Amino acid sequence: MASRTYSIEGVNNVTEFIFWGLSQNPEVEEVCFVLFSFFYMVIVLGNLLIMLTVCVGNLFKSPMYFFLNFLSFVDICYSSVTAPKMIVDLLVKKKTISYVGCMLQLFGVHFFGCTEIFILTVMAYDRYVAICKPLHYMTIMDRERCNKMLLGTWVGGFLHSIIQVALVVQLPFCGPNEIDHYFCDVHPVLKLACTDTYIVGVVVTANSGTIALGSFVILLISYTVILVSLRKQSAEGRRKALSTCGSHIAVVIIFFGPCTFMYMRPDTTFSEDKMVAVFYTIITPMLNPLIYTLRNAEVKNAMRKLWTRKVSWETTRK
Q1: pLDDT in the model for residue 219
Q2: Which of 28, 31, 99, 111 has the highest Cβ tally under 10 A?
Q3: Closest CA to 128 of 239, 223, 214
Q4: What DSSP string describes 221-240?
């Protein structure tokens, strides 16, 4: 793929792309099929459990759990854009996706990925207000403001992803159609374009990099201020704050580390990209429910009540 044939702008002879997938070794693919099928099942069931717990446990009135509910929903959608296709492809020799399907997948990855970044940022702001301005918390984080913030995360995600797709769609693809990846992402797809993609690559990197770096800096500042302010709290107050903030910080590190490696760099691809992508498209959505459940006493109590209600209901039926 080192040599590239340039064609007239606008010519597009490619109707489908071929993925190289995670591995070309059939034995490795069989192991990956079992492993990632299990991971995806955990993602769906774990995040649905959190959503059910928040709704049935009447936690929706708390802004933190209001956003946690939508974070779980976005995690399911985000992983569903890539995981089912990847799992099915592990069983077939030729892994293809149509041109339209590729563009839709690219849109979905960036839409839900960017929305998740913004939701994590909003959740950091929520924790900042709760710990640093507790007396004004419910006034500042009222339902109307929470709804506006949530709408902003979705609009921001849409604008980011539509820019990424618009930059790729106008490029001509006339020859090579093999993608060294397991899903359509901007950098691997740009390598196949039959024209100079330097300017597009710079804009793509600026778009993704600004969002990733900007959000990460805001998150670092928020949690630094929170941790500094905890010195004034009582021992019990510090314990509760660290319990909720600890889970948030863990999710931020797990999610932003791989994203930073992938999108805050020039338009280049590395052999490690596929494994790094697995981390933020599958591993992070799978770990989120475990992190928020194990680190949060309120969620665990709500789950116990939900389980008790289920057991008592089944006993009554008998």
Answers
A1: 85
A2: 111
A3: 223
A4: HHHHHHHHHGGGS-HHHHHH
Distance between CA atoms of residues 284 and 254, nearest Å: 6
Per residue in 237-276, pLDDT (tens digit) is 677 667 667 777 777 888 888 887 778 777 666 667 888 8
Partners of 98 in the beta sheet? 16
Q: How many CA atoms lie within 13 Å of 9's alpha carbon, on the beta-carbon side?
A: 4
Q: Could you report the per-residue pLDDT of 129-182, keeping only the tens digit for each?
A: 988 888 899 899 999 999 999 999 999 999 999 999 999 999 998 878 899 899
Length of the chain: 318
Which residues are within 8 A (CB) of 227 and not within 5 positions of it... i.e. 6 or more apart? 245
What's the CA dihedral at 46, 48, 49, 51 to 10 degrees? 130
Task: Report the C-alpha gap between 4 and 195 in whole angstroms.
Answer: 8
Other Cβ atoms within 10 Å of 76 Cβ, number: 18
pLDDT tens digits for range 186-225 = 989 998 998 888 899 889 988 888 888 888 888 888 888 8
Pick the closest to residue 67 from 122, 128, 112 (CA basis): 122
Q: Which residue do the tokens 């995600």 mark? A: 157
How much is the pTM?
A: 0.86
How distant, in Å, are the alpha carbons of 80, 179, 212, 254 from that of 184? 14, 8, 19, 22
Report d(CA 194, CA 258) in Å as an integer: 29
Where helices occur in the chain by DSSP H, the ranges are 26-56, 63-89, 99-132, 137-140, 143-169, 186-190, 198-229, 235-263, 273-278, 284-294, 297-317
